[in-house]
Design goal:
single chain; disordered N terminus; alpha+beta; two-stranded antiparallel sheet; disordered C terminus; 9 strands
Length: 230
C-alpha cells in the first residue's frame, strides 16, 4: 500500500511539468475509483444517524459524512464518553445489500476491536445490544502507523434487504485500560436495491389468494391453448 502511494506521489510531481493528463490516467487505475462506484454514501440518511455515548454531539454522524477523499483526515473524529463502548445507528434511504464495512482509526490503543453489527434494528440501547445475538461480529485489526482504511467483508447472505445497520463497538485495543474509543471514518460498500421488485411480490401474493385461484387457473388454461399457435 505504501509503495502504491509512493508511486502516486511521483506522479503528483509531474503535474508541474504539464503531465496532468498522465496523472489523471493514473488516478483511474488505482484502487480509489472502484471503491467509489460501490460506496453507499449517497444512500445514507445522515440526519437520522444516532450515536450513544459520543463525547461530542453528532460526531458519529460526522465520521460517516466524511467522503472517501477525507477518510484519513484527523477531524472530525468520534470519541466515546463514559466508557469505551459506542452504539451507532445508521439508516439507509431504501434497501441495500451490504458487502463490506470500511473503517479508519488512528493508530492508537483507543482503536475499536470488537464490533457487533445488527440489521434493521432502530430500537437498540447498550443493554439490548449486549443481550441480543448480532447479525455479525467483526474483529477490527489493530491499526499500525501508516495504515489506511480497513475493509472488513460482511457475510452477504446476512445483509440482503438492509434498511439500517447498528454498530455496537464493544471494546477497544487497550484491553480495558483505555476508556476512550476513537473512530475516524466509517463507510459501507454494497449495492442499492431497486424497489421495482416490490410490485412483483404484491402480484404474487394476490395470485396466492384462494378466491382468485380459480379465475387464474381458468386464464392460464386458455393461454395454454393459444400459446403454441403464437
Amino acid at each position: 500500500m505504501s509503495g502504491h502511494h509512493h508511486h502516486h506521489g511521483g506522479h503528483g510531481h509531474g503535474h508541474g511539468h504539464c503531465h496532468a493528463g498522465d496523472g489523471h490516467d493514473h488516478d483511474h487505475s488505482n484502487d480509489i475509483t472502484p471503491a467509489l462506484q460501490t460506496l453507499l454514501y449517497s444512500q445514507i440518511q445522515f440526519d437520522q444517524i444516532t450515536t450513544l455515548n459520543e463525547s461530542e454531539p453528532r460526531s458519529g454522524r460526522a465520521i460517516v459524512q466524511k467522503t472517501w477523499a477525507e477518510r484519513l483526515n484527523e477531524q472530525p473524529e468520534l470519541v466515546s464518553d463514559a466508557d469505551e463502548q459506542l452504539l451507532i445507528y445508521i439508516p439507509f434511504a431504501g434497501q441495500v445489500k451490504l458487502h463490506s464495512l470500511l473503517i479508519y482509526t488512528a493508530p492508537t490503543r483507543a482503536a475499536p476491536k470488537t464490533i457487533k453489527l445488527f440489521k434493521n434494528r432502530a430500537d437498540l440501547d447498550f443493554p439490548t445490544a449486549s443481550d441480543l445475538s448480532p447479525t455479525q461480529t467483526l474483529e477490527v485489526p489493530e491499526p499500525v502507523p501508516g495504515s489506511d482504511v480497513f475493509e472488513l467483508p460482511l457475510s452477504r447472505a446476512s445483509w440482503n434487504a438492509t434498511t439500517s445497520i447498528t454498530l455496537f463497538v464493544e471494546d477497544n485495543w487497550s484491553g480495558g485500560e483505555e476508556e476512550e474509543t476513537r473512530i475516524g471514518y466509517l463507510g459501507f460498500k454494497g449495492s442499492f436495491m431497486a424497489l421495482s421488485r416490490e410490485p412483483v411480490s404484491v402480484l404474487y401474493e394476490a395470485a396466492a389468494n384462494p378466491s382468485d385461484h380459480v379465475a387464474i387457473q381458468g386464464i392460464s388454461g386458455e393461454t395454454r391453448n393459444i400459446m403454441p399457435g403464437q
